[in-house]
Amino acid sequence: MYFSTLVLASLAIICLSAPSVSADQQPIGASEPNTISSSWTKELISLHRHLITTESISGNEYDVGKWLSKYLKDDDWTIETQKVNHDSSRLNILAYPGKVRNPDLLISSHIDTVPPFYPYKIYSNDSETIISGRGSVDAKASVAAQIIATKKLLAEKKLKKDDVALLYVVGEEVHGDGMRAANALELTPKTIIFGEPTEGKLATGHKGMLGFTINAFGKAAHSGYPWLGRSANEVLVKSLSALMQLGLELPKSDKYGSTTINLGKIEGGVAGNVVAQNATAQIAIRIAAGTPDDIGKRVVEVIKEATEEFKLPGHEDEEMFEIVFAGKGYGPVDIDHDVEGFGTITVNYGTDIPNLEKLDGQKRYLYGPGSILVAHSDHEAITLTDLKTAVKDYEKLILHSFV
User: Which CDD domains does UniProt cross-reference here (predicted)?
Assistant: First the structure.
């Protein structure tokens, strides 16, 4: 759910003036609804805290995976780990409470985060408890609420041990290599519940994604005699200008809005008085309609056309740029949302959903507490109310899977 204006204002004041509350004290705001019992609330806060305090920036997920594996193993869950890209320090976790490793229901999210790491903090005011830190929303809130919801239903005998498995993967925040590796686990669930911040609503779908790097090649020269060289920076700038124009022409849809182009990272040259020999840019296109193949072809065409003027006499066949696509990309992803009692939302971010091969007739749901608008920021935070509500909502989704 979105923070209200009051809560956001309160958070800013609290961060500046309120004393930090020890995590062991686990405060609960006076007006928070009693969505789950105090004992489950304590375990929820503790689990969420441990996940956040264990730094797990993409590529450095080993410690949090090791801790989470032990936490579940201590509850008599069977744990399987899977190396990602043959790297023993990067492990997916498959956990199941019964004897069946491949049940009808799979619950999944990711345990990596974006950089940089921000420490865990928990604050309480007259009306709310606020928890901040890297991953507090994206997506360790989903991981914690999913696990507590599953354990709670098992304890209440509303869910059988052989009905469910958990899959927590690495690398979602970069290239999705963890979930793609999980295809080798040969899991065939009838239903998958994915966890990402959706404001406590069911996502009806999300935009597609095409990522790539442009490498521009020039010829170094003295800046006083630029005609003796070719500026890779100029080649790149001309390419990026053409891309931004292309962005105005890319397909739109009623459901997802406009296809957008983000110039994420740009580097080039070695000094102000040297004609740049190399330059590079990393680009992300969020696809609202169409296919990544068609959009990728248009990208190549406009850059090629835009850089024709930089060909040097006698070097017309010399390569001036290369485009390196980060995988094949994917188009817009429609997601199941046929569960009563939930609001719905479409989101602009990508998820691991398209990275896991879909079976015919398989149901896929996307839900999670917290807002994407604070994820990836220096003020990433969630309310305890939203975290507790997510436990109950995941319970509803889990039970719906067996209707």
Answer: M20_ArgE_DapE-like_fungal
Q: Give residue-wise pLDDT tens across range 190-220.
A: 999 999 999 999 999 999 999 999 999 999 9
SS3 150: helix
Number of domains in the chain: 2
Distances from the Cα of 128 to the Cαs of 119, 136, 228, 393, in angstroms?
Answer: 20, 16, 65, 20
Strand order across the beta sheet in which 78-84 lies: 78-84, 87-96, 164-169, 105-110, 191-195, 363-367
- Tens of pLDDT, residue by residue over 106-141, are 999 999 999 999 999 999 987 899 999 999 999 999
Out of 325, 356, 385, pick the residue that ends a domain: 325
Catalytic residue among 128, 172, 234, 395: 172
Closest CA to 246 of 210, 278, 205: 210
Q: Which domain holds residue 341?
A: 5-206+332-400
Residue 172 bears catalytic tag: yes
Please, which residues have CB within 8 angstroms of residue 255's CB and are 6 or more apart in sequence?
204, 205, 288, 332, 346
**Residue 334, strand partner residues:** 205
Please provide the size of the chain in residues.
Answer: 403
Asked if 25 and 369 touch (Cβ cutoff 8 Å), the reply is: no
CA distance 64 to 90: 10
- What distance in Å separates the CA atoms of residue 129 and residue 372, rounded to the nearest whole number? 19
